[in-house]
Amino acid sequence: MPGKEKVIAFPVHPGVTPLDLIGPLTVLATPGIGGTRYRTVVVGERAEPLATDTPLRLLPTATFAEVPDPWAVIVPGGGAATLAAAEDEALLSYVGSAAAGAEVVGSTGNGALVLAAADLLRGKQAAIHWAFREPLEKLGAIPAPERLLVDGRLQTAAGGTAGIDLALPLLARLRSKAIARFGQLSTEYDPQPPFGRVEPDLADDELARTLRDPDSVPTPDPGGGAERLIAFVLYPGLTVLDSVGPLQVLTALQRFAPGYRTVTVWARHEPVPTDVGVPVIPDRTFEEVPHPAIVVVPGGALPTIRAMGAPLVRDYVRSAAASAELIASVCTGSLILGAVGLLEGRDATTNWFYSGVLEDLGATYHQRRWVEDGNLIMSAGVSAGIDMALHLAARLTDEATARRVQRALDYDPQPPWGGIDYARIPRFPRAVRGGIGLTGPVLAARSRRLTRTGR
After folding, report:
1. Residues contacting residue 123 through CB under 8 Å, at least 6 positions apart
2. By Cβ atoms counted within 10 A, which residue in 90, 249, 283, 415 is the most buried?
3. What is the DSSP letter of 41?
4. Which of 165, 166, 179, 185 is nearest to 420 (CA)?
5. Beta carbons of 374 and 345 less than 8 angstroms apart
């Protein structure tokens, strides 16, 4: 039917890797006028909280039965859990039936294992996380050397941010390349891993075994010391990729440096709405983690502006920062740090669109992937949180360990059109940036008033 909405279904399973899912969801949520009407939906066998391979839980927004005939079906990966998912009859039945009429059939990470188990890749090449090439071959498919492979309606991506690399051309197909480039700018997908590219090492059998079967390799002894908690703050409407990127990195760090543990925190144990329409559920409350060793504050758009004046968020960030060894932010999360008085006279960064607001809060803005000033470390827009977190992993341990984390995530970003040329950004995004900057004095005045009154 002409004008019919195109539905892009992301079927999930227990143990899913949030970055494999949230990366493409964030790109596809880019606003824009014109093009095809479409919506994304995260589907599960049941619409109930689902564990991931991080402390964050997700809440699917529909069941398999409610989305029987999507225009596209894209299966995100999930580390070792995907091996079990490849034997899940309900999941395989859904993917097989949904793929029968879909115009796009895809996967990210090791989600290709599910496509292969559903008999959709027999004799075909597919991109996959490097550590899962052997299981893919056993299922009758051929591991491709490419990070991203498009073969007719089949679109498969490897791990790390390869799902973003897949989603950008898909967004260009649905809307336009201009909107896709705007999406790249909005998420500041201009990857600059601190150690450069860390390509897959097919000869690293120990790491591959660890990823396929975590219980097969003993976890290093933490040395008897207490675990140092890294608390990721949640709040309604946040840009969830701000949290998911560094959360994925620092959760992986636990395998190699078990003295650290990541937790997600919000005021209550209840679903928190996000920018991509998928609620997330914290594993701890603010009261349960009053003094984390490290606190990480994500950003967003209008919800972050609201959070700058929200007593629950302000009080927790201010009190947690008072005793934390390190305070980190991603994207506009730095505006929340500024709103509680932590950035006066400090070097800082934020999403490119919000640089003017940051300066009105008393900080000196630097257009860099991440900026450190004492015990503060802040990253630029959205995807920059991954690069910052790898740098932080090296700071907490050493470069060799951080490189191992990068390889475990299969983070070898390759944007389809290259990085962002900040000297040649089109007029419309610059106008948006200017408009946002006009709100800076008002937001700064409100924040200082709230700080003075202790609210």
Report:
1. 140, 141, 142
2. 249
3. E
4. 185
5. no
Distances (CA, A) of 439 to 60, 349, 357, 361: 35, 18, 7, 11
Partners of residue 51 on adjacent β-strands:
57
Strand partners of residue 327: 295, 376
pTM given for the model: 0.95
- Homologous superfamily of 225-415+430-453: Class I glutamine amidotransferase (GATase) domain (3.40.50.880)
**Cβ count within 10 A of residue 304:** 30
pLDDT for res 298: 98
Q: Where in the chain is the domain with CATH 3.40.50.880?
A: 6-186, 225-415+430-453
pLDDT digits (tens, 9 = 90+) for 347-391: 999 999 999 999 999 999 999 999 999 999 999 999 999 999 999
Contact 13, 85 (CB under 8 A): yes
Active site residues: 331
E-strand ranges in 234-384 read 260-266, 280-281, 284-285, 294-297, 326-329, 347-348, 364-365, 370-373, 376-379
Q: Tell the residue number behind the tokens 């919506």, with chain if given.
A: 39
Helix (H, G, I), strand (E, B) or coil at 353: helix
Contact 276, 265 (CB under 8 A): no
Sort strands 347-348 and 364-365 into parallel, antiparallel or unpaired: parallel
**If we measure between CA atoms, which residue out of 138, 446, 399, 410 comes closest to residue 257?**
399
Q: How far apart are CA 49 and CA 178, in angstroms?
A: 36
Q: Which two tokens stand for residue 235?
A: 């709040």
